[in-house]
Amino acid sequence: METQLKKPSTNSVGNWTVQEDEVILKYVYEKGKGDEHMMWGNLSETLNGRSGKSCRERWFNHLDPKIKRTEWSQEEQWVLFILRNQSNEKWSLISKKLMGRTDNAVKNYWNSRLKKRIDSMQHAVNQHFERKKKQKI
Prior knowledge:
Elements: H1 18-31, H2 40-46, H3 52-63, H4 74-87, H5 91-96, H6 103-136
């Protein structure tokens, strides 16, 4: 049987360019940084092939200077752990309590790092208690 490769999506524009980033930065600084004043759809006319939604996400997840790009502190990790386990809150609500961390960064950190460490520790604890049970028998 022949394996078929997936064709790239026809609506995919590719990686963001420096020029596109500059257009978004200029737009944001001209309009002010408040999201309520932004008409992100207007940018789609200037940035051929980019939707207003993708322009907004580019700003909030990558270009906004308030985004924190440093390593996660232990305090931030604890806040994420507690909030995620307390009520399974949405990423956007958790990110509002972690200044400078986007909802996308919070979700990615949880899924790629923290959850794996927690699962590993839980597995070790379970193994410990299984050994204890066998010793009592």
